[in-house]
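just leaving the lab so this will be short. what follows is a protein written twice so to speak, once as letters and once as structure tokens for the fold. can you read through it and tell me how you think this chain folds. anything you notice is useful, everything is just below:
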Amino acid sequence: MAGGSAFATPSAQRTDLLDALRGFALFGVVWSNYAVFSYWLFMRPEAHVALSGSFLDAPLEAFHTILIDGKFYSIFSMLFGIGFGFFLNKGNDGLWRFYRRMLILLMIGWLHLRYLWAGDILFLYAVLGLILPLFRGFSERALLITAAALILSPIVIDAAVILSHGDFDPVGPVIAWHEGREAELGSGTVASMLAVPNGGWKEFMEANAHTWSFRFVHLIESNRPPKVLGLFLIGLWIARRRLFADMSANAALLKRLCTLGFVIGLPSSLLMWWAEGHVGHPPEPASLLRATSYAFGVVPLAIAYASGFALLWLKDGWRMRLLALAPMGRMALSNYLMQTFIALALFTGLGLGWGTRVSAWQFEALALAVFAMEVLWSRWWLARFQFGPFEWAWRSLTYGRVMAMRK
């Protein structure tokens, strides 16, 4: 690729950097999601103990909570905002094309959410992406202030619930709606999910009928929409600030962001890990502590990871290594969906049925193997084709014509 050459243009290196960073984000995404895909997260503690290597569960869970969970989808979200900034540079034509892309992504996300995996993030990205153009007239300062307000808003929401003694509870109506659906379906969400590893197509579809509304509960309960929108705006600020356009000139700022992110993010993430086991609903002091530590832990650490990645990119030796992730990032949509397809083959009764049968270290190892496979597959694919398979379909639908696929 162009960015691997000593004669690469700055703009080619910038594109390769963002692709490589996107591939790095996908590493954290698959590592986080396989705890859910394997159904381990929904098993009782006594069932965990019965699995091989269960003595590693507690340290691995701590490692994930402190260093992994939330940080990589945050990087992904910031990259989404950067991409929107690129579209704005193309004028009104780029803006309308962005709207078309979001509507197509909305359909892809809904199909993924409803029929394949309830942990989908594409649907939420598309919904929030459709309102992102409302912020295109904001100044750089206004973008940062609005982003901070959105990311910190869960603290205010949880505090309002506690101070009102539960009279103000934005999650309550969503939970009631989901429980009403469960009553109509005649079974509980977790029970239907745990039947999937030993079942077939019928059990899989029955579980999906439950889990898509359960996902909405989780998104609202975790205050995910304002967090993601805030991260989009940080990405838009990065695009405006041209932080990756000339990294040598911005190296000092990247170093400050990296240092500050670790100084704030690590202690807050440790606090978040401690609070994790004490959270209830409706919010109580422990959940307010978790919301606060999440806000000051996840986003600063994500910024530290991303800026640290960019600083390593400035070093020739590291850039050549990190460049291996760029093909995976160029095919981010295909690789994200591929992680679902592989997980269904591994963990559900439609495939090997390993769900509920693998301990934490085992699904961690499987996630790493999937990541390594996607790195190699992406490089092989893009040596022959211009786009990933789903990127090709997305682009063709956006432009309203079949795009050339082969190089």
